[in-house]
Amino acid sequence: MPVITKRAAPGFVSPGFVSEDDLSTAIAAPLVVADVPPIGTSAGGPPNPARAAGVIVPDHVAIIMDGNGRWAKLRGLPRVAGHREGSRAVRRTVEAAIRSGVSWLTIYAFSSENWRRPAGEIMDLTGLLRRYLRSEVAELKQSGVRMRFIGDRGRFDSDIQGDLAAAERDTEANARLNLTIALSYGARAEIAAAARAALAAVHAGCLDAGALGEEAFASFLATAGMPDPDLIIRTSGEQRLSNFLLWQAAYAELVFLDVFWPDFDHTHFDAALKEFARRERRFGASKD
Ligand code: FPP
Questions:
Q1: Is 68 in the pocket of ligand 1 (CB under 6 A)?
Q2: CA of 280 to the centre of ligand 1 (A)
Q3: Cα 68 from Cα 126, distance rounded (Å)
Q4: CATH number for 186
Q5: Is residue 87 part of a domain?
Q6: Is the residue at 286 inside a domain?
Q7: In a domain, 75, yes or no
Q8: What band does 55 get if pLDDT is binned at 50, 70 and 90?
Q9: 0.70 exceeded by pTM
Q10: When you count CB atoms within 10 A of the terminal residue's CB, does the N or C end of the chain come out lower?
Q11: 143: buried, middle or exposed (CB in 10 Å: 19+, 13-18, 0-12)?
């Protein structure tokens, strides 16, 4: 995929960007042509035609969904309209991940810093979350999606906490797609909590401090048991991780898309996967 060399806003140039032209190419020649039933029609593990055809598909895609507010502002709409449209994009993205044979999808829906937003916007966001959990989980379950949540769920109202636990419980037998939603999540807080837990294990005599290597430490993180993300996508043109999966992102490929999250669809997902397939991952080793 060619990389963008210029962009509407002057001075905003990045080799990591995927241009609209790239997206049209992705539409014309989709990365993956999978005959997988749409969400709600079938459960079970999907075939992975892209992998079978030798195309490298990331096992774990993580997404920083950004640009809801700007999407709404451009249209003269309240921010909540962007968030509402953003939750429709979540649905499209889950479908795209299943269709592409991605096994793990992690989305950043609410950061620990988002609590600093005005009370009205927090009400809107938690209201959308409540609606999402009540309207989508049954269908996700039918589609073979396993749901998990990472972050400080204790800060949400107790009914939401109950819905989160129920969604995890109801979908725990599924394996077609592992969908993790980061809520009230911050990577530094996650790492600090893991350090406290590891220290407590040492003090309790369950862990030898000398044996606390990378793998052992990762087992104290909220993502224990999950593979690290291979690909992290951020929408809206911003290029930073914003306290998302900082430990886990060590070797992730980063793709920044010039699209606001509410407009994100399978063409953007496919374009990001195509860009990922082009990248050479060496994990610190040399080429030869
Ligand atoms: C970033 O846009 C987006 C968020 C802070 C929230 C993401 C929420 C959703 C996609 C909808 C709800 C999701 C679920 C799973 C129900 P922003 O508001 O920071 O946009 P801006 O940077 O343009 O202001």
A1: yes
A2: 31
A3: 15
A4: 3.40.1180.10
A5: yes
A6: no
A7: yes
A8: confident
A9: yes
A10: C
A11: buried
